Amino acid sequence: MSMRAILVPLEQNDYTQSVLACAHLLASRFGGHIQGFAFFPMYEVYGFGDMTPLWVTEGRPSEELAGEARKVFDRFMRQEAPSQAEGAPVSFSWLTEADPGDIFVASHARVFDITVLGRPGYDPSGPRSSTLEAVLFESGKPCLIAPPTPPRELGDNIVIAWNRSTETALAVALAMPLLHQAKRITILTVEGGTVPGPSGEQLANGLKLNGIDAQAVNVTAGKRTSGEMILEYTASVGADLLIKGAYTQSRLRQMIFGGATSHILANTTLPVFMAR
């Protein structure tokens, strides 16, 4: 099992180097191929007195901006990545004919094993939650979410945030290539933060049938939220990757009341493998 086809929609912001580092760390585990392209977001706007939506880009996606994105991508892959690389050789390419907007990212991601994106936040010039949600809901494939600071390792010490849900079960299934290579795997269940379903111990037994050793741990959040407890635990054990299902609750409910997915997306400092 492997995860060799990796897609990187590249925006130039504070997360660019971390996105590229995460993609390369992942690719080096499997001898993978990274395809990058210049990503330009689009916004839905309405003219005065006209309720017909018009999709426009933030500024005009010029050849100059796309060329700058490609230079950043090529420089990293040719100069920085080889100096820090371990593992299997990595190949890369650049897609020149890419449409702007989240719809293209989500549809193009369907033919890749995984898409690497920066952690979304409130900065309008940074990575956007709309792009991540488009890939999660429309591509049928997982995302690897890069934290603000480029990681040095990825996939040796994995924590699975097990809330017993269908979404997390899918994330675990899609992450099997990484789980087979990991040196340490912890299945973390936060009491009170689950839906009805199999326990962490039962998941560990299922993984064992696939030749994967994992330890099930149950914790109580106390006054903390599930998301806070998950990130606190991953930090305490020095995890270098968190696997989590996305949006067990609806996106609207998470926006209004909060939720583990929303908290982790806003605060994680380690890479997160996410699927829905």
Describe the structure.
It is a single chain. Helix content is 38%, strand content 23%. The chain is α/β, with parallel strands linked by helices and 276 residues long. It has two domains: 5-146, Rossmann fold, CATH 3.40.50.620; 157-275, 3-Layer(aba) Sandwich (Rossmann fold), CATH 3.40.50. Strand 1 (5-10), helix 1 (16-30) and strand 2 form a beta-alpha-beta unit.
Q: Give the uncertain stretches in residue-range form.
A: 52-56, 250-258
| Rg, nearest Å | 19 Å
The structure class reads: alpha/beta
Largest sheet: 10 strands, mixed
- Span between termini: 20 Å
CATH topology-level name of the largest domain: Rossmann fold
Principal-axis shape: globular
Sequence-ordered SSE layout with sheet pairings:
Blueprint: E1 5-10, H1 16-30, E2 33-38, E3 42-46, E4 53-57, H2 63-84, E5 91-94, H3 102-108, E6 114-118, H4 129-138, E7 143-146, E8 157-161, H5 166-174, H6 176-181, E9 184-191, H7 200-209, E10 215-220, H8 226-236, E11 241-245, H9 251-257, H10 260-267, E12 272-275
Parallel strand pairs: 1-2, 1-6, 2-5, 6-7, 8-9, 8-11, 9-10, 11-12
Antiparallel strand pairs: 3-4, 7-12
